[in-house]
């Protein structure tokens, strides 16, 4: 579950009254209708780290301690809930594995609310639900801020595999403490304790003292309890493939309107937008919001309404010749759905430059977040691209690096970038724009150390020392998994708003009243960046994802479900 805030600059625990609120006597009476009061004994464990679908507890009398174990196996009390306070954090509204243990410190009484009834409580008692949800969010933010109840990552920050693991953990809002074996004095002792050699790095060490050496993301997700396994025989009303803004909007609106909803995501919530350091023209956020923060809030909403999510599980095929449709995943799982929303978005294209593949993970980046800014602190960097994502990256990086060199093939930025970003870039003394240019050379041994570009008008070559190249050019749709199931345009984007002719299946033709997001296959829809002709903006994707649910209701009704 993504963090509500990508970069947490203040200690959330300082807001103690919101992190650990007390329910009023009147609220206690109301919540009692959703659970059962029971006695607990000293030392009784109410839930353990790793549990899924744990019950929710409100203390009536006595105390409940929230504990974690550090990397040495030592027990630490993170908080103690007293009368009228409650247990839980964000994993309480999802199917993810819990990070902590809850244990009674003495004899007492609690109200136990079963996992499935918590959603009913939060929906039926909105004032209490708001108080609970705010506490859950702040508690998770506290874990992230202090690196509590999570994992250790030991590895060279410049190593591509270390970056891959860190990016996955951070984007999925899992608490993390990073150890650089070159500079951190604790590294040698930890490596000796866990019998880790230099050749094993990077390693992930979890509180149960298990060690994963350079794991794959699916293996890591399973080990951390980040993902879910779905019953292959269960049929969902809707499966959304892709958890970018469009997919999360569809999941939120569908789940809130009573549709059983599952979300399949390859990496982490947010999609391409989740890598944006700040989005300033998204309605309702006048000071801007990071893509990860926006995705985090959206995911919390979707899960609050009951949407279920599997991360690190790429869809590999869509069997649309049967109904219910069947989506096949890379780990041989399959998921059945009455309706499908394709929201797999698009990815940045790669540069056609010698040695480019060699430097992926060793200096080439496709996101500009706090993680990348930390790696490039004080150094010159190169940003390639003329769209809003490239502009946001350049502005964000300019506050952390030595200088930003921005490369665009066209004559400038006005035709492809929002004016507010264009003006900021042109006024910034820490950004230099190079129009009519393209990267032609990359230098370095193991790590990128230099970049050269050529002015296509004059042939002049500029070469600078640079350890980071940020590539944000064009969009390549993530539609390989659709194969021959759906009609794609010449660039591979999904064609919508069309239906095959009754007389011929050769060419799609318009159908009066058809949803603009419906594909040629009834019951399968496409929204967001993956859709042919869509406006490649976050707000547009959110709009499409929310609007498509109306068409899904109509389709399900035609099946006789409603």
From TrEMBL:
UniProt domain Cyclic nucleotide-binding: residue ranges: 19-139
- Check the record and name the InterPro entries matching this protein: cNMP-bd_dom, cNMP-bd_dom_sf, FAD/NAD-bd_sf, FAD/NAD-binding_dom, Ferredoxin-NADP_redctase_2, RmlC-like_jellyroll
Q: Which UniProt keywords apply?
A: Flavoprotein, Oxidoreductase
Descriptive protein name: Thioredoxin reductase
CDD domains, from UniProt? CAP_ED
**One Pfam annotation, family name?**
cNMP_binding
- SUPFAM superfamilies given for it? cAMP-binding domain-like, FAD/NAD(P)-binding domain
Q: Where is this region: Disordered?
A: 499-521
**Domain of life of the native organism:** Bacteria
This protein's gene is called: trxB
């Amino acid at each position: 579950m993504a963090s509500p805030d990508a970069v947490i600059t203040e200690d959330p625990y300082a807001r103690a009254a919101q992190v650990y609120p007390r329910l009023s006597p009147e609220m206690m009476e109301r919540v009692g209708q959703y659970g059962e009061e029971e006695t607990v004994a000293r030392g009784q464990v109410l839930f353990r780290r790793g549990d899924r679908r744990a019950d929710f507890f409100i203390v009536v009398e006595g105390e409940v301690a929230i504990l974690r174990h550090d990397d040495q196996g030592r027990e630490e009390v993170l908080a103690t809930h007293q009368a009228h306070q409650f247990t839980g954090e964000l994993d309480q509204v999802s199917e993810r594995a819990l990070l902590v243990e809850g244990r009674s410190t003495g004899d007492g009484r609690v109200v136990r609310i079963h996992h499935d009834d918590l959603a009913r409580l939060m929906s039926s008692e909105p004032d209490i639900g708001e108080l609970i949800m705010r506490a859950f969010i702040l508690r998770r933010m506290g874990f992230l801020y202090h690196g509590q109840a999570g994992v250790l990552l030991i590895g060279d920050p410049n190593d591509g595999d270390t970056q891959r693991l860190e990016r996955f953990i951070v984007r999925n809002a899992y608490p993390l403490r990073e150890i650089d074996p070159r500079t951190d004095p604790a590294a040698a002792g930890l490596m000796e304790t866990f019998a880790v050699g230099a050749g094993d790095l990077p390693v992930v060490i979890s509180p149960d003292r298990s060690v994963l050496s350079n794991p794959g993301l699916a293996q890591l997700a399973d080990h951390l309890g980040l993902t879910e396994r779905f019953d292959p025989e269960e049929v969902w009303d809707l499966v959304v493939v892709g958890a970018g803004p469009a997919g999360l909007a569809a999941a939120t609106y569908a789940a809130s309107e009573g549709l059983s909803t599952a979300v399949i995501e390859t990496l982490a919530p947010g999609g391409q937008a989740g890598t944006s350091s700040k989005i300033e023209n998204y309605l309702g956020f006048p000071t801007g919001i990071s893509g990860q923060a926006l995705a985090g809030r959206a995911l919390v909403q979707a899960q609050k309404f009951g949407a279920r999510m599997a991360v690190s599980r790429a869809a590999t095929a869509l069997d649309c010749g049967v109904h219910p449709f069947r989506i096949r995943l890379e780990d041989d799982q399959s998921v059945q759905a009455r309706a499908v929303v394709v929201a797999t978005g698009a990815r940045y294209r790669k540069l056609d430059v010698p040695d480019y593949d060699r430097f992926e993970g060793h200096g080439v980046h496709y996101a500009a977040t706090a993680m990348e800014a930390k790696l490039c602190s004080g150094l010159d960097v190169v940003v390639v691209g003329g769209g809003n994502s490239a502009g946001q990256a350049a502005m964000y990086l300019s506050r952390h690096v030595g200088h930003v060199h921005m490369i665009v093939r066209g004559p400038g930025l006005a035709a492809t970038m929002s004016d507010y970003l264009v003006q900021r870039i042109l006024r910034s003394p820490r950004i230099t724009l190079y129009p009519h240019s393209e990267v032609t050379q990359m230098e370095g041994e193991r790590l990128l150390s230099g970049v050269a570009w050529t002015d296509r008008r004059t042939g002049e070559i500029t070469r600078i020392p640079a350890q980071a190249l940020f590539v944000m050019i064009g969009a390549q749709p993530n539609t390989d998994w659709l194969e021959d199931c759906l009609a794609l345009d010449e660039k591979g984007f999904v064609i919508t708003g069309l239906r095959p002719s009754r007389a011929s299946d050769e060419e799609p033709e318009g159908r009066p009243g058809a949803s603009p997001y419906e594909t040629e296959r009834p019951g399968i829809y496409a929204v967001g960046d993956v859709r042919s002709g869509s406006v490649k903006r976050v707000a547009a994707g959110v709009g499409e994802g929310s609007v498509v649910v109306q068409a899904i209701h109509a389709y399900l009704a035609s099946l006789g479900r409603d």
